[in-house]
Amino acid sequence: MTETSVVVPAYNSEETIAATLDSVLAQTCGDWELWAVDDGSRDGTRALLEEYARKDARIRVLSTPGNQGAGPARNLGIGAAGGRFVAFLDADDLWHPEKLERQVAFMEERGCIVSFTRYRRRKQGEPTAGHEIGAPGTVRYSDLLKSNWIPMSSAMYDRLRAPDLRMRPIRRRQDYLFWLDLLKEGGEARCLPECLMTYTIRARSVSSDKLASVLATWRLYRDEIGLPPVRAAYYFANNLARAALKRM
To answer: Is the pLDDT of residue 208 over 50?
Structure first.
């Protein structure tokens, strides 16, 4: 069995996907497979993915029927994954070379169902990243309700502990909800206290994107998790406050 399966959803990512895939190819750990999922791209993303797949047999390309969103694209990759551990990487983020090697060893040592790492953020098109962003060493379900401490492109989970779990079919916050579903029965997420990923802040309409994200978080608490209004408001307020602190 391949030790780690990497799932990379890609939509109109021809400007960034090469650097993202190169960061996987540069890993010090070579025991991985990568499932690149083209989510109905209308640019040259698919051609680039197929070019990389021709050059390295560990890279395989899948496609969704049209643009389905990141959740269904990731689910397609999860369903094809053959590794014990599944790691996620978005099509404009970058891994540092020791990421997989250090994180797999961490997962095996700690026996946790989910792990994630520290990271830095950079604006799209800028070569340098900002300060390192950390998190608590251990995150449980109650902690996660207050804030999504788990960056998608730094995260890895043990598929043997949740072989049938998939992301719910919502456009926003499906990653957050996935971690909540994984930890709901009492598992823990552990932070590997090393900076092993660079997250890209995408260039788009900031004000409309923030509003949509805030509304999606409220709907997650009320509609997806089913929290009563008072509890939903409590966790929602915590989430907003922590998000503001993170941006500062």
So the answer is: no
